[in-house]
Known about the structure:
Blueprint: H1 37-52, E1 56-58, H2 74-87, H3 89-92, E2 99-101, H4 109-118, E3 133-135, E4 138-140, H5 146-157
Parallel strand pairs: 1-2
Antiparallel strand pairs: 3-4
Helix pairs in contact: 4-5
Amino acid sequence: MSFDLSEIARSALTTDIEVPxxxxxxGTIPVTYVPAxxxxxxxxxxxxxxxxxxxxxxxxANAVDYxxxxxxxxxxxxxxxxxxxxxTKASVEGKSRFNIRAPLLYMTKAEIIKRGIELGIDYxxxxxxxxxxxxxxxxxxxxxxxxxxxxxxxxSEAGLL
Length: 161
């Protein structure tokens, strides 16, 4: 299955809107917010979980070190969970209760990075850039967008930079 958010969601991450490199404006939702992204992802996950008879759905949302996206807040995740238990055959028939699990929700980036190291994550194979660059045919992080800044701050606070 293929689904392209750029066909329905206007954002700096899905269209040609410029990704800001000057830091967040506190109290505003940035142009990197993709409309309903987590709702779409969780809806797909809910359909799949119900089909497989699984009650726990995991998402990597974070409400501590993040860009202010409304669908990363605990109240959003609680509301989606309530909706999932009203909108599915399995829950209405009492066969299953859906639980939205967000284990990273209240962790700082430094805590997430430290936990990843404990689990054996090789962070050299990962990046979190919103505006990657083509450097001699290789895609590399820009180092300047909010996502790159949060990541660098997390590694620094974890004592790894």
